[in-house]
Amino acid sequence: MELLDGKYVSEKVKVEIAAEAAKILARTGRKPHLVAVLVGHDGGSETYVASKMKNCEAVGFKSSLVRYEGDVSEEELLNKVAELNADADIDGIIVQLPLPKHIDPEKVTEKIDHRKDVDGFHPINLGRMQRNLPSFIPATPYGITLMLKEYNIETSGKHCVVVGRSNIVGSPMSILMARNTYPGNCTVTVCHSRTPDIKKFTLDADILIVAIGKKNFITADMVKEGVVVIDVGMNRETSTLTKSGFKLFGDVDFEGVSQKASWITPVPGGVGLMTIIGLLKNTLASANKQVYP
Ligand code: NAP
Fold first, then answer.
1. What is the mean pLDDT of residues 222-237?
2. Distance (Å, rounded) from C-alpha 162 to C-alpha 152?
3. Is the pTM for the entire model greater than 0.90?
4. Atom of ligand 1 nearest to the CA of 213
């Protein structure tokens, strides 16, 4: 078994991104600029946004945080997005999900100018991605493709099973793996909560990508020898054993499954770090007007 090492790949790509950001600064006098909007005080969201901001600064981007209490109205939030859309100094806008129940995430996603939608959630970007046109690709699937490339994982003709069909991970991941490009050209099966006997499908997977949010859901008896495993799950549990007070678990039982896998991502240290890279690369591409000239 070999590790798909998110720490190694993300550090390497960050050096490349920082060099590009320095070129933009030298050429234009400005840094790529990402704005994050955070509503409420969800512990996970606070951590993710802080990490995104920190990584932006580390590669020489400018980052700004717009904060609202959980009772902000949908109208006020939409007005803020419109204001950020119109601000020429901003290259990328992300609104951290989940949002409070009284705010429709679809409305907010569609309000973001697709040319600044560096999360790649806007229907225009998703549609363009499906057509293999230049687009912002959702950060987690994008990061996974970069990792597969880095380790030259063969994908053509393979059976890729994606467990989970969320708008941000499972669904775009399944589209990417089926596209006629590298990584891609897989035969893709998408499993979800209504799939009876998931094991029947996972046992046949050459590449297994799991994004469901259920700790250690995939066990060794559910995979075949030599499978490539991408574990997207980030299940936080409180723990007295760590400094942060919580411990992260994947959706895959690493202990057991790594005995059979040819390649596997650890949690932490795998996909989570690559997600940040996807976001940084999209922001850089926006600043360089690479996707929408
Ligand atoms: P989500 O929106 O909650 O979607 C979960 C998906 O899993 C749904 O499609 C659901 O099916 C399916 N599912 C749930 N229980 C299942 C079961 N028992 N069997 C089969 N399918 C099941 O989740 P998400 O946002 O994609 O996130 C998934 C996990 O990835 C979470 O742990 C999240 O924290 C993590 N995540 C990590 C990163 C990262 O950077 N590493 C980024 C994003 C998310 P239905 O559609 O039928 O309900």
1. 97
2. 19
3. yes
4. 32
CATH of domain 139-271: 3.40.50.720
The answer to the question of whether 157 is labelled as a binding residue is no
Check whether 43 has a pLDDT greater than 90: no
Percentage of the chain exceeding pLDDT 90: 96
Superfamily grouping for domain 28-114: Leucine Dehydrogenase, chain A, domain 1 (3.40.50.10860)
Q: Is the distance from CB of 209 to CB of 232 less than 8 angstroms?
A: yes
Domain residue spans of the chain: 28-114, 139-271
**Which pLDDT score, from 0 to 100, does residue 106 have?**
97
What pLDDT shows up at residue 278?
98
Q: Which residues line ligand 1 (CB under 6 A)?
A: 140, 163-166, 168-170, 191-194, 198, 211-214, 232-235, 271-272, 275
Q: Do domains 28-114 and 139-271 have the same CATH topology?
A: yes
Q: What is the mean pLDDT of the chain?
A: 97
Q: Report the distance separating Cα 117 and Cα 120, nearest Å.
A: 5
Of 52, 62, 111, 281, which is the active-site residue? 52
Distance separating alpha carbons of residues 212 and 230, to the nearest angstrom? 12
Please choose, from the candidates 2, 9, 21, the residue with its C-alpha nearest in 3D space to the C-alpha of residue 275: 9
Q: Which of 96, 117, 158, 251 is catalytic?
A: 96
